[in-house]
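Shipment paperwork, digital attachment
Item: protein structure file
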Amino acid sequence: MKAVLTVMGSGTSMGVPTIGCTCAVCTSSDPHDRRTRPSVLIEYGGRVILIDTTPDFREQALREGVRQLDAVLYTHAHADHILGLDDLRPLSFHREGRIPLYASDTVARVLRGMFRYIFDDGYKYGTMAQVEMHTVTGPVELYGARFEPVKVLHGDTEIYGYRFGSAAYLTDFSTIPEASFAQLQKLDILFLDALRHKPHPTHSTVENSVRIVEQLQPKRAFFTHICHDLPHQQTNASLPSHVRLAHDGLKLEFEI
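Attachment content:
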C-alpha cells in the first residue's frame, strides 16, 4: 500500500530560529533553515497517523492543511514531543469516536498527569480533546498497517522509534541497541536523530548517524532533530548522496 510521509518538524527542542539567537542559521533567509519541533505525519488508505504532538503542532497542521487525524503514536514524554496534545481538540470534534493515542506505560502516565483535565472526568470549564489512551507493548496495527516500536536509548532513557512498512523514524537517540538493528533492515527510508557535529550526551551526531546509515544501508536516509549548528545547504553538500537533512514540509512516498 502506498503511503506519504510529511515532515511536520525537523528541529531540536528549542526550534530554529532559536529565541534570542543571531547566529548564521537562525538569521538565514533559506526556508530550509526554519525548523519547528520534530514530528512526522503518515497518510495511507484515507487514514492519517501522527508521531508526537509538538508545541508547534497547531502551526504545523495549519501549514500542511491537516483536517483529519486517526491516531497518534508517541516516542517519549519530553516537552518538545507532547505539549501540543491539547491542539488535537478541533480534529477530535469532527470524527466518530475519540482519537486513539499510543504510548509506552511510562509516557502514558506522564500524559495523564500533565493533561489531567483531558483524561479525568468532570472538567467543566470548556471543550477538551476527545482522546483515549492505549499502552504500547508491541506492534500496533492501525487501519491495515503495522507500526512496530523500536527501542533506542536517549541518554540513559529507553524510548521508542517506530518502523512502519519500508520506513522507520528514530528521533532523540544517542545509541541504538544491537537488538534493535534487526528491526531496521531493508528500509527504503530511515530517519535518524543528528543534532549537530559536537557530541551530546543524549543525541546522535551527524558523524554517528552517517555510520549507522552505512551499517543499515537504507536506500535513503534523512536526519532530523537538527539544531542551529547545521546550515541546511552546506551540511547537505558534505553528506553522502543518499543522505540528506530533513526539512519542514518534506514529503516522501513509500510502501507501508
